[in-house]
Amino acid sequence: MVSTAPPQVAPRTAARRVKLLKTEVSRGTAWVLRAASILVPLVAWWALSASGVVADTFLPSPPDVWAAGLAMIESGDLPGDLLASLGRIGAGFGLAVLISVPLGFAMGTLGWAQPLLEPVIGILRYLPASAFIPLLIIWLGIGETSKIALLVLGVVFFNTLMTADVVRQVPARLLEVSAILGAGRARVASRVVFPYALPGILDAMRVNAAAAWNFVVVAELIAATSGLGYRITRAQRFLQTDRIFAILIVIGLIGLTIDITLRLVRGRVGRWSQ
């Protein structure tokens, strides 16, 4: 009689498969990979610009970009534009967070809030925020208000839905235990749901902070007299690609700083979830 039992996997083979699925690396290896992710593109850029295959007008060398950045710092243009952009980011992104976090929290905790808010927010989030620029200029003018409003529109809907998803992931058993111990709805929301969801809320803010930077540059490309986007437009008129590269690098470094800051805050407030 032929046996139909499934073949047994050797323990060594199974262990090897499990090891291949491991995603963690040592701290030293992680730092080497981080350095390589920056140095390899930088060396490739430097080599391509030095080879002369691409004209300096289209691809300036890293030393030229560094010199252009220093020149803008010495003239005061770059610090002033950076402060203008940071001010708009702080106002627009901060206002979007103040609106979206309570809305998302309500959608995740109140039974009536999700069917009431999710359909309209789900529609609005698919409308490109940049498409509202003509209307914002008509309604609010070309001043700061329209630029901040564009940031709010670009962030608030996505952050609301992401916050709601995080809040809905609070385990039902945790809520049941809180109710058994006699905690009321307000106390459960403030002492159980919000602390549990806070790390995920900060992760959503990290993702949408990048979107805020995209929209502030778009807002400054149109009818602006200051800001990094405005400075890019001026450099483009005179084919100053070295200045454009320098500004792009500054935007990337500021965005990375914001991301690392939110990661550190998340690690501190959500240490229990790691």
Automatic annotation (TrEMBL):
Residues 82-266 form the ABC transmembrane type-1 domain. Coiled coil: none annotated. Keywords: Cell membrane, Membrane, Transmembrane, Transmembrane helix, Transport. This is ABC transporter permease. It holds the Pfam family BPD_transp_1. Belongs to the binding-protein-dependent transport system permease family. InterPro entries: MetI-like, MetI-like_sf.
